[in-house]
């Protein structure tokens, strides 16, 4: 036996969710203390009640906060247990809409805030599903998919948006003649005869089953969340005065985000790797020092664009990339791009200028490639609105430097213990900090030495 979970607990954009919003009435109640909400929260299993949200806006901010801290070492689940109590649904739905509207109006679809909103919705759903019983989970996912996937046989092109935005990968789907197979009966009908040595039912569970259905449901809701914020943004462009209460909420979201980036790193990275801090040129490896002096022979463009740009940007902004192994964007660690504009680009441009001939003198268009390698698309100016159009390249491994730019590699003693120029930098920087002692720290070196670029395409 299991209780029926409202689809709105998983998908606030469902019909149930929309009905909850209609019942809410005016926006005036956003900041009012809500006794029903407080009761649900205080009665949630193992809930810490020392700092609970008491109105819709506080609940909305806690939702974002949970996402930002849930992977960090400091995370205490007792503070956020209420988010996974099904009785929170009507309040949670309102807080979801408040966030989408506030972020949509104030920041628009390509902002850091909207991306965090979409990602946090995905993570919340994932964690909520995990906490339901198997029966509840299957039932609610089937109901959600039933309303999201209205066509009986789905062509893969139906998922085009999800695939192009990388929210879903083609390899996650079972395709047969261009049709996506999700339904058990359809699977058995299409493949039953072809499966000879195994039980077709078990094969269905293995290949399609609950896992892929949940994945599709989650990704589709994420996409719908993004679409909804987009629609809010477009509508706001036509309005003269956006709602000041929502603008205020948007500012609060941004503050929570900036504080969390400073405290935990974006997405609660947990500070496994080295922390971002001003560049320390003394800790640069021989190959980087050589490029900074200016390239006077072949390989100039690749040395500046493919080698130096990723190195300097990661060394300054996300030196722990290999240890943490979490993909980030530049704005996740430098929200206003201040460090990029004032520290990273000047160093790269300086090296480009010292080349012979100076890089931008004969090939000014290469500035576009520098922007692209930091994730800001193929544009003349490095602007937040274009972020995500390309990937932020991670620094080349020593192995790749030796193959593609052999003249740069003049190894010294430290080079013997590392596999990537960024590991060299982190190691020497730590040693310099300790007063130049021969540092033999744990956690360095081999974990990030020969790491292939997750972003390198
Ligand atoms: S071994 Fe690696 S870090 Fe050292 S100079 Fe060569 S490429 Fe640079």
Automatic annotation (TrEMBL):
InterPro entries recorded: DNA_primase_C (IPR058560), DNA_primase_lsu_PriL (IPR023642)
Matches recorded under Pfam families: DNA_primase_lrg
Co-factor requirement: [4Fe-4S] cluster
Entry keyword set: 4Fe-4S, DNA replication, Iron, Iron-sulfur, Metal-binding, Primosome
GO molecular function, one term: 4 iron, 4 sulfur cluster binding
DNA primase large subunit C-terminal domain span: 279-415
Quaternary organization: Heterodimer of a small subunit (PriS) and a large subunit (PriL).
Protein name per its UniProtKB record: DNA primase large subunit PriL
Origin species: Methanobacterium congolense
Lineage, top ranks: Archaea, Methanobacteriati, Methanobacteriota, Methanomada group, Methanobacteria
């Amino acid at each position: 036996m299991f209780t029926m979970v409202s689809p709105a607990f998983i998908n606030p954009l469902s019909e149930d969710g929309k009905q909850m919003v209609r019942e809410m009435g005016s926006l005036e109640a956003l900041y009012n203390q809500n006794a029903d909400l407080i009761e649900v929260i205080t009665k949630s299993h193992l809930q810490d009640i020392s700092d609970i949200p008491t109105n819709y806006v506080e609940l909305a901010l806690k939702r974002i906060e949970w996402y930002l801290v849930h992977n960090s070492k400091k995370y205490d689940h007792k503070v956020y247990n209420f988010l996974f109590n099904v009785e929170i649904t009507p309040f949670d739905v309102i807080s979801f809409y408040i966030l989408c509207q506030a972020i949509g109006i104030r920041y628009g679809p390509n902002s850091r805030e909207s991306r965090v909103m979409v990602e946090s919705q995905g993570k919340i759903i994932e964690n909520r599903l995990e906490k339901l019983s198997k029966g509840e989970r299957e039932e609610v996912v089937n109901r959600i998919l039933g309303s999201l996937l209205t066509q009986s046989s789905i062509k893969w092109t139906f998922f085009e948006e999800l695939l192009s935005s990388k929210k879903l990968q083609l390899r996650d789907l079972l395709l047969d003649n261009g049709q996506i197979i999700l339904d058990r009966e359809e699977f058995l009908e299409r493949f039953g005869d072809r499966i000879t040595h195994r039980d077709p039912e078990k094969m269905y569970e293995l290949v399609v089953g609950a896992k892929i259905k949940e994945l599709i449901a989650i990704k589709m809701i994420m996409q719908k969340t993004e679409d909804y914020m987009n629609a809010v943004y477009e509508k706001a462009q036509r309005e003269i005065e956006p709602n000041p209460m929502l603008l205020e909420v948007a500012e609060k979201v941004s503050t929570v985000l900036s504080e969390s980036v400073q405290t935990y790193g974006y997405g609660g990275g947990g500070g496994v790797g080295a922390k971002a801090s001003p560049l320390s040129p003394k800790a640069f490896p021989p190959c980087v020092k050589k490029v900074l002096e200016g390239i006077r022979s072949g390989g100039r463009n690749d040395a500046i664009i493919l080698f130096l740009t990723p190195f300097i940007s990661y060394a300054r902004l996300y030196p722990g990339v290999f240890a943490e192994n979490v993909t980030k964007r530049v704005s996740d660690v430098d929200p206003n791009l201040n460090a990029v504009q004032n520290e990273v680009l000047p160093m790269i441009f300086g090296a480009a200028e010292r080349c012979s001939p100076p890089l931008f003198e004969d090939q000014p268009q290469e500035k576009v490639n520098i922007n692209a390698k930091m994730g800001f698309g193929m544009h003349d100016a490095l602007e937040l609105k274009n972020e995500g159009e390309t990937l932020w390249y991670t620094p080349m491994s020593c192995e790749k430097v030796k193959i593609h730019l052999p003249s740069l590699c003049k190894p010294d003693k430290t080079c013997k213990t590392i596999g990537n120029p960024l590991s060299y930098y982190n190691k020497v920087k730590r040693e310099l900090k300790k007063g130049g002692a021969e540092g033999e720290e744990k956690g360095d070196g081999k974990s990030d030495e020969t790491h292939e670029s997750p972003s390198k395409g």
